Structures are given as structure tokens and as C-alpha cells.
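Protocol step 4 of 6: record predicted structures for both targets in the notebook before any analysis. Target 1:
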Amino acid sequence: MSPRTRRPLALVLAVGAAASVSGCTALSTGYAPPVTVTVTPTVTVTAKTAPTTAAPTPTPTPTATRNPDLRSAVRGRAFDLGTITSVDQQGGNQVIVLDRWTVRGRSDGSVGRTGIDLTPSSGASFSNRNAISFRIPVDPAAQIVRQTCTSPDAPAATAKATLQDLQALPDQAAIVKITLDDQGWATKVESNPVCP
């Protein structure tokens, strides 16, 4: 190598060394361009749910219907009054066998048209007609109500009952008022609230 060739090589090495030292110096001085960092938190909420179970399917209750072949012996009356001598089943419906009574001082026709209010009393205002019995079909949705005297001055206490419950009542407490529809079917049967 000639001294001429060495010089340019020495110059290149000197410039290269200066550049690499200046690069180290720039980094070692702590200078760096500012960097912006944005942190966005992501929150995930997972609710624990109870295990789902299917609701039980209710068993449908068969709806009782009226037997179209049943005929009432009291069709045309709005009300009837008497004692239940028996309760029969006919064509899927209950049928009351009624011994008709009446109210002293009123005609049977008047009782059949307008009825009577059964209020707490001694029960002495009724009399037995001693006539034939009447068969009255009972609507499946009929209300059967037992009335009880708590005091002659207070309204009667009422409770849901069966026809057999009313039939078993003693003496004039067994007298029932029957509300009838236009076909003569019993839609409400309520007992006489006799006071002791």
C-alpha cells in the first residue's frame, strides 16, 4: 500500500469512528424523541346465572260441562226453596232432589219469581209444602254456600260448602235457597242461617 492509498483509508476510518462515537453520544445523553402511549382498559363482566330449568307444564284440568240431555223440573222459576233430600249423579252432573218449602204469608209463585233474602233468624217463617220432590240439575260452576248465624243483629258468616254439607244440616238450617238460570239449572245454593 502506498502512502497515498493509506490516507484516504485513514480518512474514511476517522470519519466512520467519529460518526459511530457521535451516535453513541446522542443515545447516551438520554435524548430520545417523545413517545405517547395511550392505555385503554377493557373490562368484561360476566354474570353468573343460575342453571335454567324448564317450568313444569301444568296438567290441564278437565272443565265440567252441562249434560244437554238433563232437564230441570223447575224451569221457568228464578228461585226455589226447600230441603235437599238427595244428591244424585246423572250424565256427569249433580242433580238435587228438592223437597219444596215456602215462606208463610207468600205464595209459592211469588217465591219462585223474586226469591227471599236468607238473613239470620229463628227460621220459623218457613213451612213445608209436603208436595212432590223436584229434580234440579246443578251447574258445574255453581256456588254452594253455607251461611251461619253469628248473631241475630250481624250478617251471616259464609263459607264454601258441598251440597252434601247442606243436606246434612239440622232442622230449618237445612232449608236452602236455590238461584236458577233460565233453563232451571241451579247456579247458587245457599243455606238458611238459623240462629240458636
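Target 2:
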Amino acid sequence: MTKVQASSSYSFTVEPPMALLINGLRCRPLYRRRGLRSLLTHAPSKHALNPAKDHITKALEEAQPPPNLLSYPKRWFAKTFTEPTMVLLSGLGLLYNGSMQSLQLWVDYHQKGKPVRTRSEIRHVQRNKRDLARVFPATIFLALPFAIPMLPFVFRKAPSFLPSVFITDEILAKKMHVTQTKRAELAPILLASLGQALEARASRGNAKNSSVTQALERRWKNMFNNNSRPSEGDLIALQPVIRDNVNILDLSSSQLRVMGQFVGLALPWIASQSRLYGWVDWILKDDELLRQQGVQALTEYELLEALEERGFINISGQKTGRLRTMLAEHLRFTKTASDVISRRSRAASSRNEPQLTTTGLPLEEIASMTTLILTARALGVHERS
């Protein structure tokens, strides 16, 4: 027993200290177990092995994929041929439908005696007539070789060359931007030409009502020299001196050409005086139709069309509510000016039976309204936020 105990005592003392007894069985130390050996050793992390690996992986994940060279010809073909062709086909469909609607209005007028009275119908007939007038030159252009690839350039640089049914929202935005830039450049030239015309007539002694005219001239010069934007009342007060000295009946051809360019007349050097008179005559009539209809019923396209037609400058990128406000202020301005001119014309005893126009104003008065409206546009009277 002593030997057995001694041997067992000896075997216990030489056994490694980490030996375990599990379920009555003696097991090997943990560090000898092959599957658990990694638990007793320190395994370096991935960050320690390669600290820049995560940054590289993150950069690769955030990087844009390389461009697919095979997609360039496809995009070029779609932009050069497919998209212009779709715009062309859809525009032809709109032109056909619009022509049929105009024909129906014409038939109703001649057979049923039903006149075209609403502004929407009048604008539709006018727009359709302009589009049909542009069909012939557009057809000649499209008959040229490689005309389809040139359509994006034409839409961008000369949208008025083609019918309005081909003008998309993107093309309209570019057109408004080009118009704004051009008018911003012409505005100081227009004001300078009007000031020179007034000074020239005053220096030659041709100004009418010299005492009143001289006072208004000083007011005109002070208004522009102080770089202050006048109000509607200031411009309406200046209307007599505009009527007697710088209306479109008294201006030179070069000054009329600047005014024609400002309102967007094609070939403004040809019959600019009669065309400007036709422009202001239509504006005054259309203003009356808009007062009856209201500006709230107009779409954004119709608002841009009306403001661009009236010579407004800063209309590109404006919100619809702001566009309505600008048009409403213009309608109030022309209404006030027309009422003042009408009362003044009736009260003027020196003018015997003045020649009335379709708007009910004398010829020289409506001629002065052209200068009055364009002066307000060049000064930005109704474009203040």
C-alpha cells in the first residue's frame, strides 16, 4: 500500500498542472489540444496585418465604375437621332390636331355665326397660324441631308424658326434664358437711345409745350442719373413728354430697330414702325382679355409666353406664383395708363376729333404706349421681388 500510494503520489506530482478531470477521466492539458491551441495564442487582427486594407476597400466601394465605352455610341445615337425624331413626330401630331381645331372654329364662325371670343381660342388660332407659316421653311430644312442630327442645335439656338409644337420644356427653358440674356444687354441701349432722342428734339427746339417738357426732361434725367427705379406713377407722369417727343412715330430707324430687337421681332430692321404699332395694339387688346379671364387660369407655359411677349426680362427660373404677380402688375399698369390717357384725350380741347384706333385711344397716344411699356420693361419696374 505504501508503494502504491507512493507511486500514485509520484504520478500526481509529475502530471502537468493544467491537467483536467472531466467525468472521471484525466484529459491532456489545454495547450496540447490541437483544436484549442489557438485560444492560448494571440492571433493578430486583420487591421494589424494590413492597416491600409480597409481604406482601400472603402475607396474601391465608393469609386464610380469605369465608363462603358460601348454605351457612348448608343447614347450618341439616341441624343442625335432618336430623341429629335420623337419630338418631330409628336410635334407633327400636335400640329395636325391644332389645325383641325382651328378649322372647326372657322367652320363654326362661317356656318353658325359663332365668333371666337375667349382668349384661349384666340391664342390657339394665332399660334396655329404662326406654326403653319413656319411649316414650309421647316420642311425645306428637314429635306436637307443630316437635318435630323442638326435639330438639337436648331432647337437650342433658333427655336422660333420651327413651329411652337416642337418646343419642349427643356427647349423652352433654354429659350427663356437666351431671351433674358439678350434683353438684359439691350435694356441700357434702349434707354440711352430714348434719352438721346429726347435731348436731340429739345436741342433743336422741336419739343412741344417747352415749359412742361423741360420740367419733365429734368425729371427724366434725374430719374436715370440717380440709378433709381421709378414707379408706375413716375412713368405715367412722363407719358406726355414721351407722346410728344419719343413715340414710335418720331423715332429714327436705328432707334426703332433697337425696340424691335428688344421685343423679339424677326428682322427688326424691316417695317419696324408698323410692326411695333401692331405689337402694342395686340398687347393692349390681350391685356383686356386677360383682365376679363384672370391670370390664375393660365398655365406656366402661357404665363411665360405672355411675359416674354410683353418684353419682360427676368422670367427664366421664376416660380409660377411670381410669374402671375408680374403679369398682374403689368395689367394694372396698362389699365391705369390707358385710363389716364383716355381722360386726358377727352379733356384736351386743342385736339379736334383725334383719330381713334381699335383700342379706343388716339393714334399718337397708342404710339406713345409702345415707348412707355418698353421703358418700364427696360427699367424692370414690375420685376422687383
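Step 5 preliminary note on target 2. The CA atoms of residues 357 and 363 lie 6 Å apart. The chain is about 65% helix and 0% strand.
Proceed to step 6 after PI sign-off.
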